[in-house]
Design a protein that fits this description.
Blueprint lengths: L2 H16 L4 H7 L3 E6 L2 E6 L2 H10 L1 H12 L4 E6 L1 H13 L19 H17 L17 H12 L8 E5 L5 H15 L5 E5 H12 L4 H13 L3 E5 L8 H16 L3 E6 L11 H8 L2 E5 L4 H14 L6 H10 L4 H18 L5 H8 L10 H11 L4 H5 L5 H17 L4 H8 L3 H17 L1 H16 L2
Parallel strand pairs: 2-3, 4-7, 4-8, 5-6, 6-7
Antiparallel strand pairs: 1-2
Length: 471
Amino acid sequence: MNNLEVENIWEKARLGLLNKLPESSYAWINSFEPTGYSGGVFTVVTDLEMAATVIRQFHLKEVKEVFKEITGNTVDFEIICDKDTVKALRKDRAKRGKLRLTVYNTIETEKDKKEKEQGRNMDHLAKMQSTGLNLKYKFENFVVGENSKIAYSVAKMVAENPAQKYNPLFIYGGSGLGKTHLMQAIGHYAIFNLSRKKVKYIRTQDFVNQYINGLREKDKTASMINFRQKFKHVDILLIDDIQFIESKVKCMEELFYIFENLQQLNKQIVITSDRLPKDIPTLPDRLRTRFEMGIVVDIQPPPYETRIEILKKWSDDLRLNIQDDVFDYIAQNFDNNVRELEGAFNKVTAIAEIEGMEINLEFVQKVLHVEAQTKKITIEHIAETVAEAYNITVENMKSPARSQNISDARKYTIYLAREMTKMSYEEIAKFLNKKHPTMLYSYEKVVEAADQNVEVKETIRELKQAIKCSG
């Protein structure tokens, strides 16, 4: 769909929302610029983080209703925050005489703005739209922590020198930890810095659907040729959530064909999954070994310190003055993944903006009200839960005993105390009647084991869940 058609749909949507949204909320709608409509997703970009937050949190239902009235189809509405893109779009529309004048739409008048840079930004945007990448997933927007530093470093090296060393790159980890962010950051970097490289991003679910739809065509041969053509001249192929291909035999065969072709042409392949290749059921050995032939890296849930840094970055982006006790409260109570953390932060900032309230600890506690759902996690509670899981006592852990069962329980207690509380190694050592160096060694042993063993990761996940749900 061309730009004019996209703009026309957006103008109709804006008019439709005029009577559905309160005046205060409609003002945020006016900060959006349409950028594309494909695959059932209508995308807009804004330079106001709060605009995105308010509409996502409170008015997504009304927006989708309006789009269904206009198009007759169910439409997903995606909001991206990117100031540079907004500037480039508005300058381009101003040149074409189509710039909308609203309280948020002001024509860029900086005299030192180079036309060459504007052209580059517009070309970048066009390429981003054609590849399906999300503008917000850049390397500079990714907060690196102990949980992700290896994955980040490898992804950056792949982006700067595709197909030179780590090919394929396989990134795995739980939902909402940043796998898609890093993958798309590679594509974003390549488009902006390696202009001759052709990038294609595709979710595995879309890959499967497109393949199946092709088989339904009358001329299956021509359809399959067209399907393969989409991948034939790609320099960097990004395949998201590969675990969804399990049990789809024909799709796996087609993926193998594409994989082999790109490998022979020395093209970069990046894959994400929520599990290791060997843990994807029904995955053929020939695909599994190819997924593992480059490098396999993982992303773990962010530790407390990284969650704090992420929250501070979001706060700085919105130019908010938030005290450390607020960051501490959110980081302590939302520790499963970055997506959950972002949801809590967005809820707080959106309600504060709408109600005109100061973001302090009392306000955040009222908005998130997590005390009613969970109690404060202590090392005593962690130790009791782990001891029960291993059929021992907390006193066994504190004793000099070194049996495998007691030793394992002790190591998990140390690890979880570091991850789920703000306790220092010295404080943990005091509780367990041990020496400080032993605490550090035990923690690092669990981290190392979790990197190499899916069963250890699952044990950690189950223990965390038990700790949160018990008592």
